[in-house]
Write a structure and sequence with these properties.
alpha+beta; 33% strand; 7-stranded antiparallel beta sheet; 137 residues
Length: 137
Amino acid sequence: MEIIKESFFEVIKNSIGVSPEESIIPVKRGFLASIDTFSKERELEVYLVFNKQFLHTMCENFLGEENPSLEALEDMAKELANLVVGHAKVIAQSKNHNFTISTPQYLGVRVIKNYNHGLHFRLDGGGHCSIFIRNKD
């Protein structure tokens, strides 16, 4: 979980120049993207859930889209899943932990249930994101 958290902070800071903050408020319903990780030890499903404001902020600051379409918000959810988990893979490799990742999927505006761990973040202005991890085993 620490690697995912480190990755999230670095990806957001490097993408839009804003540091997210940890939050105690989970986002259990929102724009849901997933990506799987595979290693010798275990397989995990990683879910990122964003509220609309978080994705809007990312589209505005990362892509320069002031009025992003629904499709742009959905694409941003998938792209963030890929960036965060992909960067976590690089961090893990630097610590001699190896895993592979799947292609990210956008699952729609949905509720997340049945997870093992969760991390919650916020941006100034009302953007919220949660990352949930579920063991596949």
